[in-house]
Amino acid sequence: MTNPLPAEILEQRAEEQRRRLHNTVVELRSSVRERLDVQRTAQQYVWRASAVVGMLALIAGYGAAGMFID
């Protein structure tokens, strides 16, 4: 059984699929770079991280002071 579609149409479809695949890969790379950007992520969460570290320091300090107080 032969394919009823001419080779030119099949080639055009293959080229279109390759172009879409290439664009998808480019978008994926860009997305991964944005998510793995350490400096941007650190700037975005610096206040939250500071609050968490401050609370942990407060708890540790309270616990350490408790060892010396009767």
How is the secondary structure organized here?
Layout: H1 7-35, H2 38-68
Explain how this protein is built.
The chain is mainly α and 70 residues long. The chain folds into two domains: 36 residues; 26 residues. Helix content is 86%, strand content 0%. The chain contains two helices and no strands. The protein is rod-shaped, with a radius of gyration of 29 Å. The N and C termini lie far apart (93 Å). The model has no long low-confidence stretch (mean pLDDT 90).
Report a brief summary of the structure.
This protein is mainly α.
| Unreliable sequence segments | none
**If you compute it from the alpha carbons, what radius of gyration comes out, rounded to the nearest whole angstrom?**
29 Å
| Straight-line distance between termini | 93 Å
The structural class is mainly alpha
* Overall number of domains: 2
Instruction: Give the proportion of residues in helices.
Output: over 70%
Shape: rod-shaped
List the total number of helices: 2
* Biggest beta sheet attributes: none
Task: Look at the structure and give the mean pLDDT.
Answer: 90
From the structure above, extract its key features.
single chain, 70 residues, mainly alpha, 2 domains, 2 helices, rod-shaped
